[in-house]
């Protein structure tokens, strides 16, 4: 039986444990620039990932025009010393990965150049955004050997980053980190998830763009769950997490993605207010700042909420335009999902679309404050 004093100590220990656990959640934001009129708080981000470096002749390098933008991001660390800044290499349509990973010599060249870039730019880690091993939809080269080569490439990068950490006197949480941006469903059929898991610090899960100009219907492009209209094989965030967990990936290394933007479709069949319907053409990417000023309950675009999917969408009955996007209510649902499944946190694309920090504040309050209610 616990004495009153022991109960007090137990309560204090529980409180400390819950507090520590709350701080374990990562908030990871991709960023391309810092604008003079931005009002978002860098202190509410754990890691900013600068996009993008590229693979040029087998080596990882930043273009000359990217370096001043990166320096403006790094300048934020003067007032926020706990902020970590990484560089992402790749992105949609960025090639050179399959060729670099194909040989031991190529992997060494890639890894050594990446480590040298991190040291030269005084950043904290590398994010590898190869979209996607074994796939060429974005116009890049691919190979059936990409599966094994990707794991070997990351192992080589991990070794070189550890070597660089030792040279720089970086230890424990300060060592150079390694993450990857990764999709799900068929886009990981050439990735050994368990093998990759052993090389990296966490997965930045691109749980967005589930529907886009390449898919036959509209839908929730970043939906948490399936709706009553979602096809059985369609991608959702919870299906992606289940796929990775089934492959043996540790839950705390899964950082699910949130979209600070939407996707608009035109000439949409009007059934179900355009949700999961055929469309005439894809219109455009719509950032959060534009959605708030010109779209949400404005100009004929009416907000709808799908309770099953835990996702909003916009329907314009007059023009038959449909927009899939995420908002604070959807982010709170994802936060609750992260907490209930003991995941690693939430990352988002991208900070430039949230100049006032409205969506970032939701993530901060939910992951570093009290549990969020969807």
Care to describe what's here?
- This protein is α/β, with parallel strands linked by helices and 374 residues long.
- The protein has one domain (4-261, 328-368): Glycosidases (TIM Barrel, Alpha-Beta Barrel).
- It has ten helices and 14 strands.
- A hairpin with a 4-residue loop joins strand 12 and strand 13 (321-324).
- The model is unreliable at 4-23 (pLDDT under 50).
Calculate the terminal CA-CA distance, rounded to whole Å: 38 Å
Strand order, main sheet: write it out.
1-2-4-5-6-7-8-14
Shape: globular
Task: Supply the CATH superfamily name.
Answer: Glycosidases
Structural class: alpha/beta
Regarding quaternary structure, what we see is: single chain
Number of alpha- plus pi-helical segments? 10
What about the largest sheet? 8 strands, parallel, barrel
List SSEs in N-to-C order. Answer: HEEEHEHHEHEHEHEEEHEEEHEH
- Binned, the helix content reads 25-40%
CATH architectural category: Alpha-Beta Barrel
The top level CATH class name: Alpha Beta
Strand content: 15-25%
Radius of gyration: 21 Å
Number of domains: 1
- Mean model confidence by pLDDT: 93
């Amino acid at each position: 039986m616990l004495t009153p004093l022991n109960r007090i100590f137990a309560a204090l220990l529980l409180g400390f444990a819950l507090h520590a656990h709350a701080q374990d959640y990562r908030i990871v934001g991709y960023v391309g620039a810092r604008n003079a009129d931005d009002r978002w708080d860098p202190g509410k981000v754990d890691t900013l990932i600068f996009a993008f470096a590229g693979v040029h002749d087998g080596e990882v390098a930043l273009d000359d025009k990217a370096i001043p933008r990166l320096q403006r991001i790094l300048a934020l660390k003067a007032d926020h010393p706990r902020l970590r800044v990484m560089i992402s290499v790749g992105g949609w349509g960025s090639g050179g990965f399959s060729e670099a990973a194909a040989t031991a010599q190529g992997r060494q060249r890639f890894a050594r150049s990446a480590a040298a870039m991190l040291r030269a730019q005084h950043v904290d880690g590398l994010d590898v955004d190869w979209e996607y091993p074994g796939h060429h939809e974005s116009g890049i080269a691919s190979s059936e050997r990409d599966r094994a080569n990707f794991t070997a490439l990351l192992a080589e990068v991990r070794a070189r980053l550890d070597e660089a950490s030792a040279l720089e006197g970086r230890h424990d949480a300060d060592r150079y980190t390694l993450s990857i941006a990764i999709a799900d469903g068929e886009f990981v059929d050439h990735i050994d998830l368990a093998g990759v898991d052993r090389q990296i610090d966490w997965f930045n899960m691109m749980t967005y763009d589930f529907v886009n100009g390449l898919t036959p219907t509209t839908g929730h492009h970043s939906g948490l769950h399936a709706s009553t209209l979602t096809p059985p094989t369609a991608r959702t965030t919870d299906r992606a997490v289940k796929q990775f967990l089934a492959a043996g990936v540790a839950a705390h290394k899964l950082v699910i993605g949130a979209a600070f933007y939407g996707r608009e479709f035109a000439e949409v069949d009007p059934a179900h207010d355009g949700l999961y319907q055929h469309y005439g053409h894809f219109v455009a990417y719509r950032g959060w700042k534009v959605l708030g000023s010109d779209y949400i309950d404005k100009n004929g675009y009416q907000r709808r909420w799908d309770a099953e999917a835990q996702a909003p969408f916009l329907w314009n009955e007059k023009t038959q335009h449909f927009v899939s996007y995420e908002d604070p209510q959807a982010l709170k649902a994802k936060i609750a999902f992260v907490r209930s499944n003991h995941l690693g946190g939430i990352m988002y694309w991208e900070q430039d679309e949230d100049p006032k920090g409205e969506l970032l504040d939701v993530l901060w309050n939910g992951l570093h404050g009290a549990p969020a209610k969807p």
